Amino acid sequence: MNLSRRKFFARSAAGAAALASIPSIVSASIAPAKSSGNYSMFSRADTVLFQGDSITDAGREKTKELPNNPASFGSGYAFLAASALLNALPEKNLTIYNRGISGNKVYQLDERWKKDCLDLNPDILSILIGVNDYWHKRDGHYDGTVEIYEKDYRELLKRTKDNLPNVELVICEPYYVLNTSVVDETWVAPMKKYQAVAKKLADEFNTIWVPFQKVFDEAVKHAPATYWTGDGVHPAMPGAQLMAEAWLRAVE
Q1: Where would a tag sit more exposed on the chain, N or C end, judged by fewer CB atoms within 10 A?
Q2: How far apart are CA 159 and CA 35, in angstroms?
Q3: What is the pLDDT of residues 64-100, one digit of tens each?
């Protein structure tokens, strides 16, 4: 075997080992579910909705916006998590949508909430929002504050529960990953405030909580930050798989 082939197989083995470690990374970050692990919160014919910004959007098509459709899901964690649910629960006949839109902040979710949430009447609603509320302020493209984030987010959740009193909410933690092309140490203190608000609201509304920051903090112990995300926000392929595994663990 020549040197180049040996290097190729060595790199392939290293990549496989890193991917194989994703379940253990999630296990180290999220306590095992109290349930039997069979996704008992999902009932027959439930509608599941993923909402958020570009991390959820992941390049999905926005014309047909079909449920259970690869093009309408994009290539991110929502597609992977939805695919896993549909594979695990064929007897439940779930209807799953992705309505994330790149660049969104909380107030932009609110502006499209009737069409992209309430009219879909979800039984389970997952929301990942917050990074743009900080990032766009940082870049001078938005004048919001963490206080506005909290106010807008609380009002959005209240509006949702008022209209959909039986909906099961899943709030995902906005996250950042250091030592990447965009995110550096100056992100840490301000982002922790947004994360604290998201956790506060998750507790206040008694939602399921997905601790993405804890998961990524564990992940960078096993592979470089840029293996999981190039810019520190948008996940690479293994980062998307990591997020999907974490989301599934939280809801199982």
Answers
A1: N
A2: 29
A3: 999 999 999 999 999 999 999 999 999 999 999 999 9
Distance spanning both ends of the chain, measured CA to CA: 45
- Provide the token pair at 232: 């520190």
User: Looking at the domain that runs over 3-251, which CATH code has it been given?
Assistant: 3.40.50.1110
* Rounded Cα gap, residues 164 and 118, in angstroms: 7
Contacts of 135 (CB under 8 A, 6+ apart): 233
Answer yes or no: are the C-beta atoms of 114 and 122 closer than 8 Å.
no
Q: Break the chain into its structural domains and give their ranges.
A: 3-251
pLDDT digits (tens, 9 = 90+) for 163-199: 999 999 999 999 999 999 999 999 999 999 999 999 9
- Residue indicated by tokens 């959740």: 157
